[in-house]
Amino acid sequence: MRGFRVAIICWLLATVSKRGLAAEDWPQFRGPRGQGMSTATAVPVEWGPRKNVAWETAIPGKGWSSPVLAAGRVYLTTAIGDPGASVSLRTLCVDASNGKILWNVEVLRPDASQTRAIHQKNSLASSTPLVAGERLYVHFGYLGTAALDTAGNVLWRQTGLRYPPVHGNGGSPILVGDALIFNCDGGRDPFIVALDANSGQVNWRTTRNLPVRAPFSFSTPLLIDAGGQQEVISPASGFVGAYDPSDGHELWRVRYGEGYSVVPRPVFARGLLFISSGFDNPEIYAIRPDGARGDVTSSHVAWTHRKGAPTTPSMLVVGEELYCVSDAGIATCTDAASGKVHWTHRFDGGFSASPVSAENRIYFQNETGVGYVIEAGKTFRLLAENHLGERSLASYAVTDGTLFIRTEKHLWRIGKTIP
Questions:
Q1: How far apart, in whole angstroms, are the C-alpha atoms of residue 140 and residue 169?
Q2: What is the C-alpha separation between 216 and 186, in angstroms, rounded?
Q3: Which of 165, 166, 257, 365 has its CB 3.0 to 4.6 Å from that of 353, i.e. a possible disulfide?
Q4: What residues are paired with 56 via a beta bridge?
């Protein structure tokens, strides 16, 4: 009996150890902490349409929401129909092991008059879902937001937050406790809002109080801890603001002139917050959030850098370096603390997807479906250039041995065939 108990204990310890070493799920835009960082191992370096592909699944409709992963399932959204006509806004659940679509549910069917013209690089389903436990939250910008359970049942819909869109949808929601928070930066009267995650009702709504010529933007907020204070960092046209997640009041702001159509999600690392100021003249700002209150434009900016600043892809911090790629394909490695540039390199093509990191490697994806893999470090070293041959604007999802890549018509699982 004693030997049996010892065997059971050893089995339990081994099981716990394996679970502890398993990579995290990828439950929101840019991963577990929203920073593009993965703890996954054995992540593929090389792939192609017929190389290192576990499966490839056709996705109906059009959407540029990035895939998210939780409990062996991949979730993404799509739109069936064209702007200006009847459109079905849908959520799909895909079995991560074999690529089978488990369910495909209509979440919203807005009136044709609501689905206005969008930017050629956008879609009506560009906001990335968010998974938390048995709940899935999907966001379609000005067209509405909804919660589903992981079986595909719609639990609530919120379609009362009206604002005039410019170029369509963009930013994704974040979850802070029981609050679902996202930006509503349209053509006029921009605001940030928190919904009760259990009911969809509005908890608070805070107006962006800064007149700018072009108030529309598309960024995703980021929750940080700054000196023990939880802050929701939310870039908008003209400024980046920090908000108290409990009631939405503004804690501090840094202004950046008339910067508009801000897309990149903030990055927080090594005590600094990194943001890019948007069109027409993007500039990277490194901001010290500790102790910030009110307008801290003149006191809390550590450094700025303009050349190669992105207007669409988010940035990434690995070790002591900040990495980014501009929309035109100029990749830059900068010392995060000082802003000193270590190297720049021009990749082919335009870029919209945000880079990710795994195993001290950086993964970039251009808009024609080419994935570039480099070694993280102060010297540029290209490890692989991988072609899928299909347009792609969505960002990767990462787990052990695997990349999930959404292209214009397919979802791919890159990695060894699943047993």
A1: 7
A2: 4
A3: 365
A4: 412
CA–chain centroid gap for 168, Å, is: 17
Does residue 325 share a domain with residue 373? yes
Closest Cα to residue 332, out of 349, 348, 316? 316
140-164 b/e (C-beta count within 10 Å ≥ 16 → b): bbbbbbbbbebebebebebeebebe
pLDDT range class, residue 263, cuts 50, 70, 90 = very high
Residue 76's SS3 state is strand
Burial classification of residue 342, based on how many CB atoms lie within 10 Å of its CB (0-12 exposed, 13-18 middle, 19 or more buried): middle
Compute the distance between CA of residue 48 and CA of residue 1 in angstroms, rounded to an integer.
54
- Whole domain around residue 237: which residue ranges? 196-310
pTM comes to 0.93
The CA-based angle 245-247-253, given to 5 degrees, is: 65
Closest to 262 (Cα-Cα) out of 285, 294, 292, 290: 285
- CA atoms of 251 and 239, how far apart (whole Å): 13
Checking if the pLDDT of 168 tops 90, the result is no
- Residue 59 in domain: no
